[in-house]
Design brief:
It is a single chain. By secondary structure, this protein is an alpha+beta fold. The protein has two domains: 103 residues, no CATH class; 60 residues, no CATH class. Helices cover 52% and strands 18% of the residues. The protein has a five-stranded antiparallel beta sheet. Strand 1 and strand 2 form a beta hairpin. Helix 2 runs antiparallel to helix 3.
């Protein structure tokens, strides 16, 4: 290290947090490089955890997509009534089936210039109208959001922990400085003990 340079980083840590050439260095000065190293390791662990959690969520959601696609079928239902248009969607009453077996439901469909006599709806194994099955795109999106929340959680936790530790160490440094100043000030001002 050159003259006048402050030691910081890994070299400082490997030397046990001591700068043998600086008599003013205090024992608590090891905190800064150690805290940064711990924070970096914590954030790397956070990214690894986010990838793992995202992959597990993706696997779970892909299984759910396959299950829903096996259990739901798309069929055409006859429109029997139409409610007023509402910003891009129409609410329609539909009939599924004929005669005594007919079932009715109210569904939202995309607005169209012409009103078709039939609209596609999804039914489950029991024949009840249900929501469309989840797509693989939905599964990837859910996994990505889950991974992002894990990353944000680790980043916020790391930043809060680092900030709290810095606050504590700064208070200790100021108290140590104040205690030393109490001893030095009378001599410095030329006042006897």
């Amino acid at each position: 290290m050159g003259a006048g340079r402050t030691p910081f980083g890994l070299r400082y840590l490997f030397r046990g947090g001591r700068d043998r050439g600086n008599p003013l260095r205090r024992g608590m000065d090891w905190f800064e490089p150690l805290a940064v190293a711990v924070l970096v390791v914590f954030l790397i662990g956070g990214f690894a955890a986010a990838m793992l959690v995202g992959q597990l969520e993706l696997s779970r959601r892909i299984d759910q997509v396959r299950t829903e696609q096996r259990e739901k079928d798309e069929v055409s239902a006859t429109v029997v009534a139409r409610a007023p248009q509402n910003r891009g969607t129409d609410t329609v009453a539909v009939r599924l089936g004929e005669g005594g077996d007919a079932r009715y439901a109210i569904v939202d469909v995309r607005s169209r210039a012409s009103s078709p006599p039939e609209v596609p709806v999804w039914i489950d194994r029991s024949g009840e109208i249900t929501s469309p099955p989840m797509t693989e795109g939905d599964a990837f999106q859910a996994a990505g959001v889950t991974g992002a929340f894990v990353v944000v959680g680790f980043a916020v936790t790391g930043a809060a922990g680092y900030g709290a530790a810095r606050w504590y160490v700064t208070r200790r440094r100021l108290r140590a400085w104040e205690a030393e100043w109490e001893k030095v000030e009378p001599h410095w001002r030329g006042q006897p003990d």
